[in-house]
């Protein structure tokens, strides 16, 4: 006699939101002992982007969860190999294509083998690879050690940003194939090295089949999200729906239903083992924060529509170039487009969904100002306009 299947777990919308916040590191005491590296392992991926307003996005991610951790500390946590004195030094992270260009924990190298294999068989590329350029780049790296694109012969041909030199095309292709890896940055420049030299032997192997890679990434995404639909979980590491479908039954995630969600969902069983409790973080979020990567999910969880307007023509922007959502009390209560002018953090446009957002916004702005070395906050424009005076007053009295 076979036993009946376990009943599907039912979650309220509020429960799902709290589970998601805890999974992303915004509910409960932050793990300060694990620090930035703990945040990276917990999230599984931290997105990189060239835009820098208060700081670059990969700095804003741990800041949002840990508070005012030093910016140099953030960079060292990603790029400094450890433990000191070992030979060869073991990196903590590498860069690769996940949700986008991301910093990833070094132990996940084997689980992106499926993507490296796919790139090796890709028939078409945006950039043509000049004859001999690939072999020359590998030869140079083998002879000279880790190098930047500039040291490999220059990154550009002299045209627009996408007009890459032959050596840049070659080294980026080698990175996508997995023959080359980036485990360090100097300033904002990638430092390329041979994977066989930079990746520790115990994780260097590429012998995991696609199914094993996908099961691991689906499970990791489910853990990092807490709960999500197929689209939510697949989007985390940019998997296709059919890839998710092929492995979800064996991933360890459990089916759940969520109040108000029209599509099936899955949850990390550990997230269901105890109710999410603890203190909510009040902070400003990078537009590239994994809590709000997927717009439909953000609307479903928070009733909040988020859109990065950096690439929208200036006259058509509603909220600003780099509007950062305000998280407080487990809700998204508004957003602010910040800038720095000397020692002043400028709130160019603060959009508040409720008067209750005034004090949390002032608190978040003051903390951000202190973190980036500013000593005052100036509020320029506020929507709705009647909240300008209260917000300006709250910012003037906030402790920086």
Report on the structure:
- The chain is an alpha+beta fold and about 400 residues long.
- Helices cover about 35% and strands about 20% of the residues.
- The chain has 16 helices and 14 strands.
- It has helices spanning about 15-25, 35-45, 55-65, 70-80, 115-120, 135-145, 165-175, 195-200, 200-205, 210-225, 230-235, 240-245, 270, 295-300, 360-370, 390-395, and strands at about 10, 45, 95, 100-105, 180-185, 190-195, 225-230, 255-260, 265, 285, 325-330, 330-340, 345-350, 375-385.
- The strands form four sheets. The protein has a five-stranded mixed beta sheet with strand order 10-11-12-13-14, with helices on one face.
- The longest helix has 16 residues, at about 210-225.
Give the tally of β-strands.
14
**Biggest sheet architecture:** 5 strands, mixed
Low-pLDDT windows of residues:
none
Note the beta-strand portion: 15-25%
Query: What is the subunit arrangement here?
Result: single chain
Helix count, DSSP H or I runs of 4 or more residues? 16
Could you state the order of secondary-structure elements as H and E?
A: EHHEHHEEHHHEEHHHEHHEEHEHEEEHEH
Mean pLDDT: 93
Largest sheet, spatial ordering of strands: 10-11-12-13-14
Round the Cα radius of gyration to an integer and report it: 22 Å
Overall shape: it is globular
User: Roughly how much helix do the residues carry, as a percent range?
Assistant: 25-40%
């Amino acid at each position: 006699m076979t036993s009946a299947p376990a009943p599907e777990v039912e979650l309220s919308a509020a429960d799902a939101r709290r589970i998601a916040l805890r999974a992303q590191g915004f509910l409960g005491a932050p793990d300060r002992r694990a620090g930035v590296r703990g945040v990276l392992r917990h999230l599984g991926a931290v997105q990189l982007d060239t835009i820098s307003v208060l700081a670059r996005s990969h700095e804003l991610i741990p800041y949002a969860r840990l508070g005012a951790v030093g910016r140099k500390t953030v960079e060292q946590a990603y790029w400094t190999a450890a433990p000191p004195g070992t030979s060869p030094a073991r990196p903590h992270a590498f860069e690769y294509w996940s949700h986008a260009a991301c910093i990833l924990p070094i132990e996940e190298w084997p689980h992106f083998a499926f993507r490296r294999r796919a790139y090796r068989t890709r028939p078409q590329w945006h950039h043509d690879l000049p004859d001999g350029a690939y072999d020359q780049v590998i030869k140079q790296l083998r002879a000279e050690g880790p190098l930047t694109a500039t040291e490999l012969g220059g990154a550009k041909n002299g045209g627009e940003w996408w007009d890459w030199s032959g050596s840049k095309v070659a080294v980026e292709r080698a990175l996508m194939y997995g023959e080359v890896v980036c485990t360090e940055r100097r300033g904002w420049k990638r430092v390329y090295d041979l994977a066989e030299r930079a990746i520790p032997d115990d994780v260097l192997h590429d012998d995991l089949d696609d199914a094993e890679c996908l099961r691991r990434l689906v499970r990791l995404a489910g853990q990092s999200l807490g709960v999500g639909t197929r689209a939510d979980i697949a989007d985390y590491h940019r998997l296709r729906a059919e890839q998710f479908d092929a492995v979800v039954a064996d991933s360890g995630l459990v089916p759940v239903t969520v109040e108000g969600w029209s599509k099936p969902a899955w949850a990390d069983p550990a997230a269901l083992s105890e109710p999410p409790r603890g203190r909510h973080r009040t902070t400003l979020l990078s537009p590239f924060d994994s809590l709000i990567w997927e717009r439909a999910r953000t609307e479903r969880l928070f009733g909040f529509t988020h859109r990065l307007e950096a690439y929208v023509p200036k006259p058509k922007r509603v909220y600003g170039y780099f509007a950062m959502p305000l998280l407080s009390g487990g809700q998204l209560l508004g957003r602010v487009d910040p800038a720095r002018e000397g020692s002043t953090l400028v709130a160019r446009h603060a959009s508040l969904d409720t008067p209750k957002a005034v004090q949390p916004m002032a608190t978040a702005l003051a903390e951000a100002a202190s973190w980036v070395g500013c000593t005052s906050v100036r509020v320029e424009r506020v929507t709705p306009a009647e909240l300008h005076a209260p917000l300006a007053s709250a910012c003037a009295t906030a402790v920086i």
